[in-house]
Design brief:
2 domains; binds 2,5-dideoxy-2,5-imino-D-mannitol; mainly beta; six-stranded mixed beta sheet; Tachylectin-2, Chain A; Jelly Rolls
Length: 548
């Protein structure tokens, strides 16, 4: 079993001990970023859930405060589950969260909590008004699958609207709309905002994005949202599959319904992240006019090891999100503040050819805790393998069937991170390029697959080491593609093609830890590739203080 302290993350958000899950109610208030999250004060497994609370000036260095919301009223006696914050017109935040109010079944209601003192920028104390719960399951709603209220938005009529995730019948994921004039009395709209046959929708998120190619974020309740230059994103966390998928579409305000642009969007399952990333939530940051995404990454170690380590769960590095110019998907990039943790002297590799079968070590720095950016240039796409039409929609299967060590045509090429000296241990983050499956003889653009293969990441037995993969919607005909990996001891968070596809993976090396972790560029394809530039920085530890 693995209990090495070298596996605790260095710069990802993590409390000193115990279990954490979903990020809750992220917000910016009077110069401080607030992060709440699901937390078990009593151990490293899920249970006894309260809202832990941390604050930061820069989303990187954190001060832990005492839990903000704990079971204390009838309507949340058995758990304070996920929820969101909304800024009232006067600038004070309100939190809406799910309370579990029965010990025998997880009967769920929605409650509000208000700051005791709005002039405290740290918002240390939260009070629960006596009129809780404010939303209860009625009209045939499944009371045990009814949770995770979103940030509310205000319509032109001045009324608030928010979503609650649910399950209708056996298998329909639903986002119910509730309306209120005063954030106290809520009425459900006759029709849900949207639904799809995907199973329970946990942690819905619904927000506007600018549709004119700018990276600026849009506030959920801003006046701009009524303009044509805004699109909407609806994200849901699929309880059954444990991943977050989203669609891009339009919000029909009159009908109070959301319509995805791609009618098959709910089946295609574009994901924020093709790895370990769940129950995420965005918020609008007025300080830097951007939308930021927070997601939770669970351990993929055994529960017994979690208990032995005394901790479980991390938050991914916050990502800025904006709409790709194609309008079809989002782009994601680690918030710029994380770059302040980079050491002064990066190691740089320039114009280095990596021949078929070759690997090149990047030396001169510690890489257990590092940030690596690479731009690759593929010599020729001639050698690209033909995509098996049977696999054309299943990145995961394609990647598991042909792991990083399987010789390919164009690729696999990419990085081996957290690698041991003898390469007994390594986590591969890579690309593989295919010729499109011949359909009607037309030659479409090459298909780019991005994968993380952790099957060799640890010599320890009995680990859950799923291969993760996604297609990257990028044009590689000029041979160019980029990769960035945030490596942090037991997490590898990677961004392909400038944030078109992301994969977060948890790994637990036993040899490739601390100073013994190495970094390589590898090429297991037939085509030569060139590293046009690789820049690798050691990452410093941020300040994680206890201010409780
Ligand atoms: N986690 C919370 C729920 C949510 C789930 C409970 C998602 O509110 O649906 O800890 O991870």
């Amino acid at each position: 079993s693995i209990v090495d302290s070298e596996l605790r993350t260095g710069y990802h958000f993590q409390p000193p001990k115990n279990w954490i899950n979903d990020p809750n109610a992220p917000m910016y208030y009077k110069g401080w970023y607030h992060l709440f999250y699901q937390y078990n004060p009593k151990g490293a497994v899920w249970g006894n859930i309260v809202w832990a609370h941390s604050v930061s000036r820069d989303l990187i260095n954190w001060v832990a405060l005492k839990p903000a919301i704990e079971p204390s009223i009838r309507a949340d006696k058995y758990g304070c589950w996920s929820g969101s914050a909304t800024m009232m017109a006067d600038g004070t935040p309100v939190i809406m969260y799910t309370g579990v109010n029965r010990p025998d079944v997880n009967y769920q209601v929605q409650n509000v909590a208000l700051p005791r003192n709005g002039s405290d920028p740290l918002l240390r104390e939260w009070v629960k008004p006596g009129h809780n719960p404010v939303i209860v399951p009625e009209g045939g709603i499944n009371a045990t699958q009814f949770r995770d209220p979103t940030t509310a938005w205000r319509g032109a009529d001045g009324h608030w609207r928010l979503l609650v995730g649910s399950l209708a019948g056996q298998s329909r994921g639903v986002a119910y709309v509730y309306r209120s004039r005063d954030f106290r009395r809520w009425t459900r709209a006759a029709q849900p905002l949207h639904s799809a046959p995907t199973g329970m929708w946990e942690c819905p998120d619904f927000y506007p994005v600018t549709a004119d190619g700018r990276r600026e974020g849009v506030d959920t309740s801003s006046a701009v949202v009524a303009s044509a230059r805004v699109k909407y994103v609806l994200k849901n966390s699929l309880d059954l599959r444990r991943y977050d998928y989203y669609t891009v579409g339009t919000y029909d305000r009159k009908a109070e319904r959301y319509v995805p642009d791609d009618p098959a969007g709910d089946e295609h399952h574009i994901r924020y992240d093709y790895g370990n990333f769940y129950a995420s939530k965005t918020f609008y940051d007025p300080a830097k006019r951007r939308r930021i995404l927070w997601g939770w990454a669970n351990e993929s170690d055994t529960a017994a090891d979690d208990v032995a380590k005394g901790w479980a769960g991390i938050q991914a590095i916050p990502r800025k999100v904006w709409l790709d110019p194609s309008g079809k998907q989002l782009l994601q990039w680690p918030i710029e503040e994380v770059e302040r943790l980079r050491g002064k002297w990066p190691v740089i590799l320039k114009d280095r050819v990596v021949k078929p079968g070759e690997h090149v070590e990047v030396t001169g720095l510690q890489t257990a805790q590092a940030d690596v950016e690479v731009s690759f240039k593929v010599g020729s796409l001639e050698a690209a393998e033909r995509l098996d039409p049977a696999m054309a929609y299943d990145a995961q299967r394609l990647c598991s069937a042909r792991g990083a060590d399987a010789r390919g045509g164009v690729g696999p090429f990419g990085l081996w991170v957290l690698a041991s000296a003898g390469l007994e241990e390594k986590t591969a983050v890579f690309f593989r390029v295919f010729r499109p499956a011949a359909r009607g003889g037309g030659a479409g653009k090459p298909v780019v697959l991005m994968c993380t293969d952790p099957t060799k990441s640890s010599r320890n037995p009995n680990m859950y080491q799923p291969t993760f993969a996604g297609f990257v919607d990028t044009d590689i005909t000029n041979g160019k593609i980029s990769l960035r990996s945030l490596i942090d001891r037991s997490v590898v968070e990677s961004f392909g093609a400038g944030g078109k596809a992301c994969i977060l993976s948890r790994v637990y090396p036993s040899l490739a830890i601390g100073k013994n972790a190495r970094l390589y560029v590898f090429n297991n394809g037939k085509a030569e590739i060139k590293v046009s530039q690789l820049t690798a920085w050691e990452m410093k530890k941020p300040v994680m203080m206890n201010g409780a």
